[in-house]
Design a protein that fits this description.
441 residues; Alpha-Beta Plaits; binds flavin-adenine dinucleotide; 12 helices; single chain; FAD/NAD(P)-binding domain
Length: 441
């Protein structure tokens, strides 16, 4: 097996691709990141990431991983005016119709609220400053190049906007092309089976607008989140972002698509929002019309289960696992994968794909399980007895969290992927859930 670490190529320069490039830069002499879009200098929307117009939350596990990969970046974001949400004190959060107690707890680390295009642009700037990483935009990847024996991936074929074809030889190729996950189909061309894939159709629709709020939100709030629930399949998120702008997103489950005309959007928001919000929104300066984005299905591709896989190829980010966006996990999981990749490479290149997919799966598993259990209930699909029990327990936890900051912290640590779901049934938590519900009862 070649141990050369001369050149790595990353396919896709969105969040997962950029973070993977950062990880590879420690171990490869040169890293090239290819994307078919022109990559703007600032935080502008671009065609390849249409979801970027919509509310994006960076989970705490993602904040932590980002800090590890780019020390000092969080401070730069805060200095640039990205709102920082300390310990939940600045969030209005409603789950299953229960509003969480708000006093921020010390165990909840600060959350950062950059818009998605802005966050990507700041990461891109960090990458552009790295001497051994080259971003090559306006180039579409067309396929993988196999070695003579077909045992390994030896590079990729790209074509520029003006039709110029080029072969990029590489010791390692990392597929970060998002949900389409090109490697999934290209594997067949190389004579390999694609991985088993699990898909859960959710038919989620987002509708989002940017706005300014002259007086801001009351009580120092920086975000308002109302999760969809049984009986109310449309939820909302209002998030303060850099430059004094807010993103307001309505998100509907299972074909309950939010309206995109001004009046319908406003009326729908007023119906879902907490009582204080319609008044606040009356003074809003709307900066654009509602944009829609449809998310058909979560998918997970089990690369870790493949018996045969070529050397010199990895898959990261949404190409590996794409979660229902309502759970806000994609960027955090991509960041955790980048940390895994960096650390595995530091320990050696032997069996890299096997070690990487296994370690990534351990991170993906709890997040995926949470999404599957919640979505199956929300969609009215048949559930196992264990899933029904978990669902009932979590509803009670949400109810008790309305008056218990410790439960807010416990739940938030799990939903933001810092702790494993099993921590929610520790005796200390269980007792508070029971006591809280007895008090309510
Ligand atoms: C509506 C919505 C809301 C979301 N909200 C959240 C949230 O709140 N929190 C969160 O953490 N995550 C959220 N996500 C998920 C998040 O957007 C992704 O997880 C994140 O962008 C990382 O994805 P990625 O880099 O793997 O792929 P993508 O962001 O999809 O990027 C893929 C890149 O590959 C490029 N590309 C594709 N094919 C080719 C090719 N053949 N050649 C060259 N380049 C190519 C594209 O141009 C693009 O730049 C949301 C997703 C959606 C759809």
């Amino acid at each position: 097996m070649s141990q050369s670490r001369e050149h790595a190529v990353v396919l896709g320069a969105s969040v997962a691709g950029l973070l993977a490039a950062r990880a590879l830069a420690d171990s490869y002499e040169r890293v090239t990141v290819v994307d078919r879009d022109p990559l703007p200098a600032g935080g502008l929307d671009r065609k390849g990431v249409p979801q970027a117009r919509h509310a994006h939350v960076l989970m705490r596990a993602g904040v932590r991983a980002l800090d590890d990969l780019f020390p000092g970046l969080l401070e730069k974001l805060a200095a640039d005016g990205v709102p920082v949400n300390y310990g939940g004190a600045h969030s209005w959060t409603e789950f299953n119709g229960h509003v969480f107690q708000r006093a921020g707890g010390p165990r909840i680390a600060p959350g950062y609220q950059p818009s998605r295009p802005y966050l990507e642009a700041r990461i891109r700037e960090e990458i552009r400053e790295m001497p051994n990483v080259l971003l090559r935009d306006e180039r579409t990847v067309q396929g993988l190049i196999a070695s003579a024996t077909g045992e390994r991936v030896a590079g990729v074929r790209v074509v520029s906007r003006d039709g110029e074809e080029e072969a990029l030889p590489a010791d390692l190729v990392v597929d970060a092309t998002g949900r389409s996950g090109r490697a999934f189909t290209w594997l067949r061309d190389l004579g390999y089976d694609p991985p088993e894939e699990k898909i859960l159709a959710v038919d989620v629709m987002y509708a989002s607008r940017r706005l300014r709020l002259p007086g801001g939100l009351p009580e120092g709030l920086r975000s308002v989140l109302v999760e969809p629930r049984t009986g109310q399949p449309v939820g909302m998120a209002l998030i303060e972002q850099e430059g004094g702008e807010y993103t307001l997103t309505l998100m509907g489950y299972a074909g309950h698509h939010p309206p995109t005309d001004h009046d319908g959007f406003r009326a729908s928001t007023d119906r879902i929002a907490p009582a204080f919000l319609p008044d606040v929104l009356r003074d809003a300066e709307w900066l654009d019309e509602p944009h829609r984005h449809r998310y058909p299905a979560s998918h997970r591709r089990y690369y870790e289960r493949l018996r045969r896989f070529p050397e010199g190829l990895l898959v990261v980010g949404d190409a590996l696992c794409s979660f229902n966006p309502l759970f806000g996990q994609g960027m955090a999981v991509a960041a955790m994968e980048a940390v895994i990749l960096r650390d595995l490479l530091a320990a050696g290149q032997e069996n890299l794909a096997r070690r990487f997919f296994k370690a990534a799966a351990e991170r993906i598993d709890p997040a995926w399980q949470m999404v599957m259990t919640t979505d199956r209930a929300q969609l009215g699909l048949p559930q196992s007895a264990a899933e029904r029990l978990i669902g009932a327990y979590v509803r009670r936890l949400h109810a008790a969290a309305a008056r218990d900051r410790v439960l807010v912290e416990a739940f938030s640590s799990v939903s933001s992927l810092v702790e494993l779901p099993v921590t929610l049934i520790k005796p200390a938590v269980l007792i508070r859930v029971l006591a809280g519900n007895l008090r309510r009862g």
